[in-house]
Amino acid sequence: MAKEIMKTNDIVFSNRTFRTSAKIITYECIDIFLSPYGNYWSNLRKFYTSKLLNATQ
């Protein structure tokens, strides 16, 4: 059931509001964990999966 909820509401959960402390710690939320869903997030995800999380390197 949780898997279905996350599949159908993934964009709702990813577009959450940010606290001031999170913005300060992460340099205006530029990391993949706190950045809002959009082009920037998609590009970060592609980079992480192709370069950093690739097992062949």
Explain this structure.
There is one protein chain. By secondary structure, the chain is an all-alpha fold. It has one domain (2-52). Helices cover 56% and strands 0% of the residues. The chain has 4 helices and no strands. It has helices spanning 2-8, 10-14, 20-25, 39-52. The longest helix has 14 residues, at 39-52. The radius of gyration is 14 Å and the shape is flat. The termini are far apart. 0% of the residues are buried. Belongs to the cytochrome P450 family. GO terms for molecular function: heme binding; iron ion binding; monooxygenase activity; oxidoreductase activity, acting on paired donors, with incorporation or reduction of molecular oxygen. It comes from Gossypium aridum. This is Cytochrome P450. Keywords: Heme, Iron, Metal-binding, Oxidoreductase.
Structural descriptors:
57 residues; mainly alpha; 4 helices
Total number of strands: 0
Count of discrete domains: 1
Question: Helical stretch count?
Answer: 4
Global shape: flat
Tell me the distance between the termini. 36 Å
Quaternary structure annotation: single chain
Q: Give the SSE string.
A: HHHH
Rg from Cα: 14 Å
| Binned strand content | under 5%
List low-confidence stretches. Answer: none
Task: Give the helix proportion (percent range).
Answer: 55-70%
Major pleated sheet: none
Q: Overall mean pLDDT score?
A: 74
Question: Structural class given helices, strands, pairing?
Answer: mainly alpha
Protein name: Cytochrome P450
Keywords: Heme, Iron, Metal-binding, Oxidoreductase
GO molecular function: heme binding; iron ion binding; monooxygenase activity; oxidoreductase activity, acting on paired donors, with incorporation or reduction of molecular oxygen
Organism: Gossypium aridum (American cotton)
